[in-house]
Every structure is written in structure tokens, then in C-alpha cells.
């Protein structure tokens, strides 16, 4: 193998480990050997890939593009190895998945636990985050996302729809002197608790039956960074919120939260598995996508 190919793999490990020291530990090499190979690679390319201080390292612009190619090469090499061993070999390796908090606890984590029970060689990394993390920057294999997807090079598999409800605590409505059902004019005047990704000016489109819809615009005066946080803020009577039904079922059943709109007006958001793999996808990733989709099919969102 050309030494540059080996050094590309080593460079990817340095980036993913976060430092030369940690990369050397994972590769069971001395720090000086790893540093030597990195310097030789940069000399061969004629560019600086990493800027390093005593406290941190960061990719240069050239390093960012080069790392993406190195990561792609590593994925292809791993895929070739898996295919050569055959599909009957036990699935093994790391799977990194991110999703919103509610879906992590109700869907992704239970599905991963079942998957590992069948394939003990799988090493999970589960990242609960309501923000949409960058798959490449965070070294993520799969992202479970809710709602419309922005244009990107990523690929997506739809696995269902998530029902979301506009709700509030009864004591908040009482303080505002509002009785149900709430009118459109009243809704726009209420304090809206937004998820951080929604921004300050929020528009929500609700379906009325199957053929028509209503759009409501809100100005968020309170912001949370996760569904559990927003649920707590709504329960405390800080305003109205649009939350997944499966996250507030208990609160609805005991009357701690109430729906603001009639039952025939609802918001159904598409649920996706997003990834950056093409047709050449590692067996473990494809198998977990299939398992997660099957798990979602059995659930009522």
C-alpha cells in the first residue's frame, strides 16, 4: 500500500479522536510516530491540514475537504471488507445515531437495544439533541428527523408521521381569561414557547380533515432547547406550545395540559431517517435502518 493511503487513514483518526495524543492511544502508536506521519502527509500534499496548539486542534479549509475524502475512503474500505467476509458474518462495528429527545427515548434507544441483543458486536453512540446536527462534522451515521427537510446532499427514508398538538396548561388559559376552543385571533396573542430550532417567528400549518389546512403565525416569547424542557415550561403555565402527542399523553390524560384546537385539526409531521450513504452502505447500517423502520411501523405516533 502506498504510504499516503495509510497516512490518510491515520489523518482521519486524528480528526475523529480530537488530538494526536488520543489518536496515538487508539492506534497503539507513539505520539511521535503519529506526528511524523501527519507532517509527511502535509509535506506530500504541500498544504497544512491541521492547525495545532497546546490546547486544541482545528481543520484548515484544505483539511476539511481532505478529511471528507478520507472518511469516504475509510467507509469504502470498511464496506469492501464486510462484503468480502460475506453477509452471514455477525454484524459488528460502531453505529452513531442522533434524534430529538422524545424519539430517542421512545423509538431509537429501544430499537438499538433490541438490535444489539441480536448483534452483540454493535457499538452504539446515541446522541439526543433536538437541534439538527451536521452528520459529517459530528461523524454521525444516521439522524432521525421530524418535519420538512432542507435541500442537501443527504439521503432520507420516510418511516412515518408524528402527530403534534397545540397545548397549554389550564391555569395559563385562566390567567388570560380564555375558554376553549381558542380563536385564531386569541392564539396569535398568546405567549408561544418555541423550540430553539424554530426561531422567533413561527408558522405552523394544521390540517383540517384531509383536504384543507389552517396556518397560524406565532411570535415566540419563550424558548427551550428540547421537548422535555418545553413540556416543563408549558406545565408551569408559561405559554402555549406545539408538542408531540406521545410526549404529553400522560399530561393530557390527567388534565395538566389541554388541547387548544378541536380534534379534527391536527399537525402531522413526516418522520425521516437521514444519512450520507449511497448504495454502498455498510451491512450494519442498512440492517439497523431496516430494524428502525420496522420498529416505527409498530408504533402509534
Automatic annotation (TrEMBL):
Transmembrane residue ranges: none
Cited Pfam families: HTH_1 (PF00126), LysR_substrate (PF03466)
Q: Which domain of life is it from?
A: Bacteria
Where would I find the HTH lysR-type domain in this sequence? 3-60
> InterPro entries, alphabetically?
LysR-type_TF_proteobact-type, LysR_HTH_N, LysR_subst-bd, WH-like_DNA-bd_sf, WH_DNA-bd_sf
| UniProt entry tagged with the keyword Transmembrane helix | no
- Gene3D superfamilies, per the entry: 3.40.190.290, Winged helix-like DNA-binding domain superfamily/Winged helix DNA-binding domain (1.10.10.10)
Where do the coiled-coil regions begin and end?
none
Query: What family does the entry list?
Result: Belongs to the LysR transcriptional regulatory family.
Q: What is this protein called?
A: LysR family transcriptional regulator
Protein's organism = Aeromonas schubertii
